Backbone:
């Protein structure tokens, strides 16, 4: 009975082995007629299913098998070969499995590495906002002058055309900060702030023998760096001084200790400058400083804050020429503690000592009066009180050589102060006794090259102003008040500032004493946008006056000296020394983001 | 005991100042600000803001016009009800409140 092919093969192999072993030697296998190959023929009885090696009645041929195929050795050889092949295949499979395991392990390791990389990258992107910040501050205005006049600039580099130009008006952009901050780590901050400024034209240039190019700076809005500094805030944490925690060290082009602080106390810098900034102190210096809060108790309140540093004598937009430096320091004390900056009662003191920006080989030359080379002192003492709805502050200012004609006329001044003679000069040669010119020039004076006529233009007056303010021995005293009050339930906040400055108290009556007052109302449109409508006024409050040349000699005035190549009065009095007042209305805008 | 010591110290300083300035009345603020060190662009560290959340906002949020300027910076900071907020935070609070009111109507 045949069960499977393998069973048949083994059965046939066994049958052939027994058959050849049992049969006589002469008995041979049947041969294939074509090839003569010995063949084994098997017969089957269909009824009984028995297989016979010989033909018989009822039997039919089942199969013919070549003897060589049934050789026991051949089958075993093939079996061995198959088994060998199988073993080889199994080995190859095992090798492939091992390789696969290795690949899986390698893949797992790779996936782990990738999974570690992705969060770091994602973390960097997600935390990018904490490492970088950009913001902007934009000031613009429309101003209208009912009365123009000579004065300091109301805001950064805005000017007016001087007396005799009433109804002058202008749209201006006075600030365009692009604040860029980098915080590479928790302790370091880099700030870069480009800002625009209005250029005042330089001279035209000659090109070649017959060509000229016009200056393109006049009135252009240029861009310059307002702030560029690096700040470190981890010093007191590392030194384990908790009372000074939060203090910083700053190096670069940075806010000075007073102006930026006072602007934020006042809150309306987009309308007008704060007192010392208006008089002469730039808001920005190049140098190094330290600043921070003082919280000596564990109640979370700030009881003082400080800011002090050493800086170049030059302003941030001029070359440094000196071999000295200026120092500034401010200390604000809050006796009841402040929950937030400026809160409650505060007392502030500021002191600045420096020198005029002059190269040493010039500053060291012996002169009677040092003029612009003299040392400069500024002092401010404030008492202030702030709540969330209103604040008020009073300030006393003291200075030495801290207010020059350059400051007085930063907004507008007589042409004579800038190298352009004004008016019609005397040209008598010689000056005759009893003549009109004889009031100011000695008989016989040669005025062929021009002698200033005090009744025409501002030349003689400018000579007097420069002597009063630029001698290097001028003392300033000033008083200021400012504040605001938010009307509850509205977006309106009236505000105001009053300043009184006496630019040289060594002169018993100084025609340049003036008061400034600003009064207006601010409208808070939203968190980023404010408007203000305000009146700004400069009042030279003395009655019109003349000052004798002999009195002016006590300052730096040189009778018969030269200004713009033109002779200044030698004798008599210089009249019309009190400048005209300026009155204007501003509509200001602040956008801060 | 420690609080009493601070209180007397403050009173002493206040008395000295009253004598100097002659001010009639003064209210001393006892508000304590939670100053979390939020990175501030160009702002002194003591003007750091208080962490805020628009969730579970019970009443109307502080409005910028009712607040005091703490720092004009990027972004600016205001003190409202004794806490310090950035302009972004105030805007967020206001808009969340307006949305809440609009959906309640």
Residues:
């Amino acid at each position: 009975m045949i069960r499977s092919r393998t069973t048949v093969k083994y059965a046939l192999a066994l049958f052939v082995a027994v058959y050849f072993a049992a049969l006589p030697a002469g008995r041979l296998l049947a041969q294939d007629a074509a090839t003569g190959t010995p063949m084994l023929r098997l017969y089957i009885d269909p009824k009984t299913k028995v297989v016979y090696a010989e033909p018989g009645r009822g039997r039919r041929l089942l199969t013919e098998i070549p003897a060589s195929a049934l050789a026991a050795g051949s089958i075993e050889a093939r079996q061995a070969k198959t088994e060998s092949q199988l073993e080889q295949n199994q080995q190859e499979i095992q090798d492939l499995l091992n390789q696969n395991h290795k690949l899986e392990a390698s893949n797992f390791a790779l996936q782990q590495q990738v999974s570690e990389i992705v969060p770091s990258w994602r973390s960097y992107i997600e935390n990018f906002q904490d490492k970088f910040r950009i913001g902007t501050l934009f000031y613009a205005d429309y101003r209208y002058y009912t009365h123009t006049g000579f004065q300091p600039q109301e805001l950064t580099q805005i000017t007016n055309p001087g007396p005799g130009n009433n109804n002058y008006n202008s749209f201006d952009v006075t600030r365009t900060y692009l604040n860029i901050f980098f915080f590479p780590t928790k302790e370091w901050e880099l700030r870069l702030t480009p800002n625009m400024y209005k250029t005042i034209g330089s001279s035209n240039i000659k090109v070649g023998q017959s060509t000229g190019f016009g200056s393109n700076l006049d009135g252009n809005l240029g861009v310059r760096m307002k702030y560029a500094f690096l700040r470190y805030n981890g010093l007191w944490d590392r030194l384990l001084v908790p009372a000074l925690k939060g203090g910083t060290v700053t190096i670069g082009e940075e806010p000075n200790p007073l102006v930026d602080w006072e602007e934020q106390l006042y809150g309306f810098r987009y309308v007008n400058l704060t007192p010392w900034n208006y008089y002469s102190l730039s808001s920005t210096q190049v140098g190094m400083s330290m600043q921070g809060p003082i919280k000596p108790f564990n109640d979370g309140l700030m009881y003082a804050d400080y800011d002090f540093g050493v800086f170049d004598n030059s302003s941030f937009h001029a070359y440094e020429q000196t071999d000295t430096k200026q120092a500034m320091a401010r200390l604000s004390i809050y006796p009841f503690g402040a929950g937030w900056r400026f809160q409650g009662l505060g007392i502030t003191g500021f002191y600045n000592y420096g020198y005029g920006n002059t190269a040493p080989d010039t500053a060291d030359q012996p002169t009677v009066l040092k003029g612009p080379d003299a040392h400069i002192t500024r002092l401010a003492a404030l008492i202030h009180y702030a709540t969330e709805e209103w604040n008020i502050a009073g300030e006393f200012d003291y200075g030495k050589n801290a207010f020059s004609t350059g400051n007085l006329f930063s907004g507008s001044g007589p042409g004579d102060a800038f190298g352009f003679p004004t008016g019609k000069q005397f040209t008598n040669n010689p000056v005759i006794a009893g003549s009109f010119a004889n009031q100011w020039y000695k008989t016989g004076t040669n005025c062929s090259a021009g002698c200033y006529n005090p009744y025409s233009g501002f030349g003689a007056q400018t000579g007097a102003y420069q002597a009063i303010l630029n001698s290097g021995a001028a003392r300033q005293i000033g008083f200021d008040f400012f504040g605001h009050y938010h009307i509850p339930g509205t977006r309106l906040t009236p505000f105001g500032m009053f300043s009184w400055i006496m630019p040289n108290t060594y002169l018993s009556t100084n025609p340049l004493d003036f008061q400034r007052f600003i009064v207006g109302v601010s409208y808070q449109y939203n968190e980023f946008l404010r408007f203000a409508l305000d009146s700004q006024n400069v009042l030279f409050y003395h009655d019109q006056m003349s000052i004798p040349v002999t009195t002016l000699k006590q300052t730096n005035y040189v009778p018969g000296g030269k200004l713009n190549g033109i002779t200044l009065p030698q004798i008599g009095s210089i009249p019309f020394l009190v400048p005209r007042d300026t009155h204007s209305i501003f509509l200001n805008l602040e956008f801060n983001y | 005991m420690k609080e009493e010591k601070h209180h007397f110290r403050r009173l002493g300083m206040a008395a000295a100042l009253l004598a100097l300035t002659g001010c009639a009345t003064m209210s001393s603020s006892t508000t304590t600000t939670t100053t979390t060190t939020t990175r501030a662009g160009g702002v002194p560290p003591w003007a750091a803001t208080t962490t805020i959340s628009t969730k579970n906002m019970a009443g109307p949020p502080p409005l910028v016009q009712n607040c005091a300027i703490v720092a004009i910076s990027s972004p600016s900071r205001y003190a409202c009800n004794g806490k310090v907020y950035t302009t972004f935070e105030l805007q967020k609070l206001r808009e969340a409140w307006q949305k809440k009111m609009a959906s309640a109507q």
Chain A touches chain B through 60 residues (CB under 8 Å). The first helix of chain A runs from residue 5 to 22.
